[in-house]
Design brief:
It is built from two helices and three strands. The chain has 99 residues and is of the alpha+beta class. It has one domain. Strands 1-2-3 form a three-stranded antiparallel β-sheet, covered by helices on one side. It binds zinc ion (ZN). Zinc ion binds next to helix 1.
Length: 99
């Protein structure tokens, strides 16, 4: 299977773009069970069509990345991803409960 790319992606059943990492949106509302996210877009974090929760999570990840730049890129992403998901899942719908 092709490597899953992280980045912003548009869902046909959501009006917003969401930022996907490891098949989960950073806001915790969406999960991608198929495909390789080949249309993922990086950058454009300030676009008005972006999901606000995903955007905050992306900004947090970038700050965390800057702080933990001594850690290798892979390790840093894993740590930040888990951390971001936890802090958002508390307030947000879990992916398995979304339509
Ligand atoms: Zn989102």
């Amino acid at each position: 299977m092709a490597e899953f790319k992280e980045g912003w992606n548009y869902l046909i059943n959501s009006r917003k773009w969401h930022y996907f990492v490891d098949r989960r949106s950073l806001c915790g509302r969406w999960a991608m069970f198929f495909g390789d996210n080949h249309d993922a877009q990086l950058g454009d974090n300030d676009s008005p069509v972006n999901c606000a929760a995903c955007r905050r999570a992306v900004e947090k990840r970038e700050k965390d990345d800057a702080r933990t730049k001594r850690v290798s890129e892979t390790e840093s992403q894993a740590v930040v991803g888990a951390d971001g998901a936890d802090s958002h899942l508390g307030a947000m719908q879990r992916p398995d409960q979304s339509e």
